[in-house]
Design goal:
- With about 100 residues, the protein is mostly helical.
- It has one domain (about 5-75).
- It contains four helices and no strands.
- It has helices at about 5-20, 35-40, 60-75, 80-85.
Length: about 100
C-alpha cells in the first residue's frame, strides 16, 4: 500500500481535475458560436472595403483634434500638489 502524503495528493488531485475537464459532454447544439459570429459580423463597418478602394469619409481635422484634446489630454494633466500644501499648513498628526 502506498502511504498517503502531501507529495502524492497534489499530483493526484491535478490529474483528477484534468480528467474531469475531459469528461465534459460532447453534444454541442447546432447554434453553438452563432451569437459570436453575429456580433463579429455586426461590427464590420464596410464589408466591401477590400473591393472598393475609395477613400473613407472622415470628420474634419480641427473637430477631431478638439475631441481628442477634450477626451484624452484633459485627464492626463498633472495636479499641482505644491499649491495644496502651501494653502493648508495644519499638521495632520497633531492633536
Amino acid at each position: 500500500m502506498i502511504p498517503f502524503s502531501k507529495d502524492f495528493a497534489v499530483p493526484l488531485s491535478f490529474v483528477a481535475i484534468l480528467l474531469a475537464g475531459c469528461s465534459a459532454p460532447k453534444h454541442i447544439s447546432p447554434e453553438f458560436g452563432e451569437s459570436f459570429t453575429k456580433a463579429f459580423h455586426a461590427q464590420v463597418m464596410n464589408p466591401d472595403a477590400p473591393i472598393n478602394r475609395a477613400p473613407v469619409t472622415t470628420m474634419p481635422g480641427p473637430l477631431a483634434n478638439a475631441i481628442y484634446k477634450n477626451k484624452y489630454e484633459h485627464p492626463m494633466k498633472e495636479i499641482d500638489s505644491d499649491s495644496d500644501s502651501k494653502d493648508n499648513n495644519t499638521d495632520i498628526m497633531a492633536d
